[in-house]
Write a structure and sequence with these properties.
single chain, 115 residues, alpha+beta, Arc Repressor Mutant, subunit A, three-stranded antiparallel beta sheet, elongated
C-alpha cells in the first residue's frame, strides 16, 4: 500500500483527513510502544490464551499480564471470551497481527526465529 503523497493541489480537507489518520496511527503506536504489550500480542498471534498461559510464557506475575491485557482491551486490540472461570484473550483484528509481525520482523536479523 503506497504512502499518501501531498501534492501542491492537496486541499485543506484532504490534509485534515491525513492528519486525523496520522493521529490514529500515532495513538496506536503509543499503545504498542510497551515491550510487554508487544510480547503479549505476539503470543496471541498463535491463538487465544488465558492470563495464566501468558503469564507462564512470559515468566512474569499475573498482575502485570492482567494490567497490560486491560490496556490492550481498552484500546480495542484484544477481545476477551469467558468460559466458566477462565477468560480467553485473542487479537481483535488480523491487521494487528500483521502490524506486530511486521514491527518485530524489522528488528530480526535474517535467519532468526519466526513468528
Amino acid at each position: 500500500m503506497p504512502l499518501p503523497r501531498l501534492k501542491p493541489e492537496t486541499s485543506g480537507e484532504e490534509l485534515h483527513d491525513l492528519a486525523g489518520e496520522a493521529r490514529k496511527a500515532a495513538d496506536l503506536l503509543k499503545v504498542l510502544s510497551h515491550q510487554s504489550r508487544l510480547l503479549i500480542l505476539s503470543i496471541l498471534a498463535d491463538g487465544e490464551k488465558t492470563v495464566g498461559e501468558i503469564e507462564i510464557l512470559l515468566g512474569v506475575q499475573q498482575a502485570m499480564v492482567s494490567q497490560q491485557l486491560a490496556r490492550l482491551r481498552m484500546e480495542g486490540l484484544v477481545t476477551a471470551r469467558r468460559a466458566g472461570r477462565l477468560v480467553f484473550y485473542s487479537i481483535a483484528s488480523p491487521e494487528i497481527t500483521v502490524l506486530v509481525s511486521s514491527l518485530l520482523s524489522m528488528m530480526r536479523k535474517p535467519g532468526e526465529f519466526e513468528m
